C-alpha cells in the first residue's frame, strides 16, 4: 500500500453561506428614547405603518436621531458587503418602518421580496421575566430565522451546524441585525405590558451592469 498520500489535507468549503450580522450600536442609550417617541407618534398618525413603508419611509424624517440612525445603517451595510467579499462600490437606498408590538402582538412567518438585505434595529425590548407564560412553546419578544434550503434538516444529526433549521435570538435594546432579505423569519409575541419597539428596513441596490457576475 502506498502511504505517500497520508499527509494530504482535505479542502473544506462553506458553500451557499447565509451571512447574519449583529451589532450593538454605540450611543443607543441616548438616541433610543427619542426614536421611540417618534415611532409611537407615527403609530398613532399612520394606519398600517408596517405596510406603507414605501410611502411613509420613516428614515426620511428630518430629525437628528433619524439622521444618526441612517448613518449607522449605511456603515453597517458597507461592513456587511465588504465581509461578503464585495470589493466594488455599491449604491443603495433604505426603506424603513417602525414596529410597535403591544402585549400579545407578533409577526407571522415572512420574508422581504424585491430587496437585497433586510434588517431590524431594536429600540425597546421590554423585560419578559415577569410575563404570564401560558404555553411552553412561547419565546416572548424573540425573533427566529429559518434555513432557506427546503428540507435541508431532514437528515439532521446532533451538533451538525449545517442542518439546524432555526436560529432564535432574544434581542437587546440597541441591537442591530442584518440578514439576506430572502430569509424567512418571525417575531414571537411580546408578553410584557410595555411595548416592544423596533425599526425595520430593506436595502435596495441601485442596478448597474457592473453588478452582473463574471
Compact overview of the structure:
By secondary structure, this protein is α+β, with helices and mostly antiparallel strands. It is 18% helix and 25% strand. The protein has a single domain (21-125, 138-149, 161-206), classed as Sandwich (Jelly Rolls).
Note down, in words, how this protein is organized.
This protein has 214 residues and is α+β, with helices and mostly antiparallel strands. The protein has a single domain (21-125, 138-149, 161-206), classed as Jelly Rolls, CATH 2.60.120.620. It is 18% helix and 25% strand. It is built from 2 helices and 9 strands; from the N terminus they run βααββββββββ. Strands 1-7-4-9-2 form a 5-stranded antiparallel β-sheet. The protein has a 4-stranded antiparallel β-sheet with strand order 3-8-5-6, with no helix packed on it. It is globular, with a radius of gyration of 20 Å.
Amino acid at each position: 500500500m502506498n502511504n505517500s498520500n497520508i499527509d494530504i489535507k482535505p479542502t473544506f468549503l462553506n458553500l451557499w453561506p447565509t451571512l447574519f450580522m449583529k451589532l450593538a450600536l454605540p450611543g443607543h442609550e441616548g438616541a433610543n428614547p427619542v426614536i421611540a417617541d417618534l415611532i409611537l407618534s407615527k403609530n398613532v398618525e399612520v394606519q398600517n405603518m408596517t405596510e406603507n413603508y414605501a410611502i411613509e419611509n420613516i428614515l426620511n424624517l428630518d430629525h437628528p436621531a433619524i439622521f444618526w440612525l441612517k448613518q449607522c445603517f449605511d456603515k453597517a451595510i458597507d461592513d456587511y458587503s465588504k465581509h461578503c467579499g464585495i470589493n466594488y462600490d455599491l449604491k443603495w437606498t433604505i426603506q424603513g418602518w417602525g414596529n410597535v408590538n403591544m402585549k400579545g402582538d407578533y409577526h407571522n412567518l415572512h420574508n422581504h421580496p424585491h430587496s437585497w438585505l433586510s434588517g431590524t434595529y431594536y429600540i425597546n425590548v421590554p423585560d419578559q421575566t415577569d410575563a404570564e407564560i401560558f404555553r411552553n412553546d412561547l419565546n416572548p419578544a424573540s425573533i427566529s430565522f429559518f434555513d432557506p434550503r427546503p428540507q435541508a434538516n431532514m437528515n439532521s444529526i446532533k451538533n451538525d451546524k449545517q442542518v439546524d433549521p432555526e436560529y432564535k435570538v432574544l434581542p437587546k435594546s440597541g441591537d442591530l441585525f442584518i440578514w439576506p432579505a430572502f430569509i424567512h423569519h418571525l417575531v414571537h409575541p411580546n408578553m410584557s405590558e410595555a411595548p416592544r419597539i423596533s425599526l425595520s428596513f430593506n436595502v435596495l441596490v441601485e442596478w448597474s451592469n457592473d453588478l452582473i457576475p463574471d
